[in-house]
Amino acid sequence: MAKKAVHGFVSGIVQGVGYRAFTRRKAKELDLKGYVKNLPDGRVEFYAEGEEEKLLSLLKELQKGPFFAKVEKVDYHFLEPRGEYEDFYILY
User: Fold this and answer.
1) Domains of the chain, earliest start first
2) Catalytic annotation, pick one of 24, 25, 38, 82
3) pLDDT (tens digit, 9 = 90+) per residue, 11-45?
4) Is the pTM of this model over 0.90?
5) In degrees rounded to 5, what are phi and psi of residue 19?
6) Mean pLDDT lowest for which of 1-5, 10-14, 65-69, 73-77?
7) Strand-pair partners of 10
8) Is residue 82 annotated as part of the catalytic site, yes or no?
9) 85: DSSP letter
């Protein structure tokens, strides 16, 4: 199956609630590569590569987030994968 990538931003109460660890865990369960990081404006940025079906599963999980998160919006777009990630990372 062809690889794709998704890049996006999550808004809401998504910092200080374990959102990055949640995203990394879900991405690794789905065998996706990429990163997640907090932004100074309170959003979380993510980039993931893998099979389209698995990326769609990740997006569903990101809409929910971990227990203490309150996700207001997930903005994303699909693009061609870069192929530069060996794992799924939390960036600081």
Assistant:
1) 3-91 (3.30.70.100)
2) 38
3) 999 999 999 999 999 999 999 999 999 999 999 99
4) yes
5) -65, -40
6) 1-5
7) 44, 74
8) no
9) -
2 pLDDT above the threshold of 80: no
38 tagged catalytic: yes
Q: What is the DSSP letter of 87?
A: S
Q: How far is CA 18 from the centre of its chain?
A: 13
What is the distance between the alpha carbons of residues 32 and 48, in angstroms, rounded to a whole number? Answer: 6
Tell me how far apart the alpha carbons of residues 35 and 13 are, in angstroms, rounded to a whole number: 19
* Residues written for the chain: 92
- Could you give the CA distance from residue 85 to residue 62 in angstroms, rounded to a whole number? 20
Point out the catalytic residue in the list 20, 25, 43, 82: 20
